[in-house]
Write a structure and sequence with these properties.
It comes from Ostreobium quekettii. Pfam families: TerC. The structure is a single chain. This protein is mainly alpha-helical. It has two domains: about 20-95; about 110-350, no CATH class. It has helices at about 15-35, 50-110, 110-140, 150-175, 180-195, 210-220, 240-265, 270-285, 285-295, 305-320, 330-350, and strands at about 1-5, 10, 35, 45, 230-235, 235-240. Strands 1-2 form a two-stranded antiparallel ribbon. A two-stranded antiparallel ribbon has the order 3-4. The protein has a two-stranded antiparallel ribbon with strand order 5-6. A hairpin with a 2-residue loop joins strand 5 (about 230-235) and strand 6 (about 235-240).
Length: about 350
């Protein structure tokens, strides 16, 4: 619960340090200026005129404004430090993925290594798009920041198991019934078209989202969070907290995302080992990647369109392969890298225009 004291947000009944310093200084100033006599017998100095009182009020407002500016500056520095820390964590996971790819190259050869890196890059790009939806879910449910890592950890664990099943079933389906490969390609082309057709100003209303409606109807949910607990007791009845509802939406959304990501990697290779390991290294970095992307997402306004183009390219490649026209893994890796790099570069070169004050 968030309450307010003197205009300051109070989290868990504790005032921010800036608020405490400001209130303490105001008390000391008031004692010095308005109170006279020994501590046991303080009276308001009625001799002060209106101008004196007005001047003191102005000083108080100015003092409060200066203090708020300092707090905002400190918060900005803290935000930059958080971005740097999350960026280092993402770099560590990427380094681990590259090291594993080097091992694939050493033990299985160049071709398998190229397939691994193409699959990893593709899954990582799709994961970025998924993270935008996770951010939307957390904002909608007003999930406390300290509770979000728990939801992400559970989501990553379930995603690992889900993809293991989907990779196995997908390979079996394609090998036993080749037209399934074409069906996956058409699914990717549809997803690509849908992403491109969506306007930049289209904001999804989660209140009308089918997944959210289903989860709300399937469980009784309390109105308040209870720390990082998924369940709480309300009027003597055990009920779910909004944190469990957020987890359920994230889990079901990941099932939908996997329907795109797994077929996309099938467009590069049908080797289940390469498909699964490339997926896993992309998924394992999601928690660190979320903290990084949630801060910089507003700067990457063209990334979702780049991901849409990647899906379209892979869908086209799968149709070409099905028709007997093979597109090499090297070319696929180059195209995917250029599309994603172009999306990031364009976002940085053409930032969102700022509204005039």
């Amino acid at each position: 619960m968030v309450s307010r004291a003197g205009g300051w947000p109070v989290h868990g009944g504790v005032l921010p340090r800036g608020a405490l310093l400001w209130q303490r200084s105001m008390v000391n100033t008031t004692r010095t200026t308005f109170l006279r006599g020994p501590p046991g017998r303080r009276q308001i100095d009625k001799g002060k005129g209106p101008d004196d009182w007005r001047g003191h009020k102005t000083a108080m407002v100015s003092h409060a404004g200066d203090d708020r500016a300092v707090v905002e500056a400190l918060q900005s520095i803290e935000k930059e430090e958080e971005v740097e820390f999350q960026g280092e964590a993402v770099a560590a996971w990427v380094g681990a993925a590259v090291a594993f790819g080097a091992g694939v190259w050493y033990f299985l050869g160049v071709e398998k290594a190229e397939e691994y890196f193409a699959g990893y890059l593709m899954e990582q790009s799709l994961s970025l798009d998924n993270l935008f939806v996770f951010i939307l879910v957390f904002n909608y449910f007003q999930t406390p920041t300290e509770c979000q890592p728990k939801v992400l950890s559970y989501g990553i664990a379930s995603a690992a198991m889900l993809r293991l099943v989907m990779v196995g079933l997908g390979v079996e389906l394609i090998e036993s019934f080749k037209p399934v490969f074409l069906g996956f390609a058409l699914l990717l082309l549809y997803s690509s078209f849908k992403l491109i057709a969506e306007g930049d100003d289209d904001e999804e209303d989660l209140e009308e989202n089918g997944v959210v409606k289903f989860c709300k109807g399937a469980m009784r949910v309390s109105d308040e969070y209870d720390g990082d607990n998924f369940f709480t007791v309300e009027d003597g009845v055990r009920v779910a907290t909004p944190l469990l509802l957020a987890l359920a939406v994230v889990e079901i959304s990941d099932v939908v995302f996997a329907v795109d990501s797994i077929p996309a990697v099938f467009g590069v290779t049908l080797d289940p080992f390469i498909v699964y390991t490339s997926n896993m290294f992309a998924i394992l970095s999601l928690r660190s990647l979320y903290g990084f992307v949630s801060v910089i997402m507003t700067r990457l306004k063209f990334l979702d369109k780049a991901v849409a183009l990647v899906l379209g390219f892979i869908g086209t490649k799968m149709i070409a392969d099905f028709s007997g026209y093979h597109i090499s893994t090297e070319l696929s890796l180059l195209v995917v890298g250029c599309l994603l790099g172009g999306g990031v570069a364009t976002s940085l070169w053409l930032p969102e225009p700022t509204d005039a004050a």
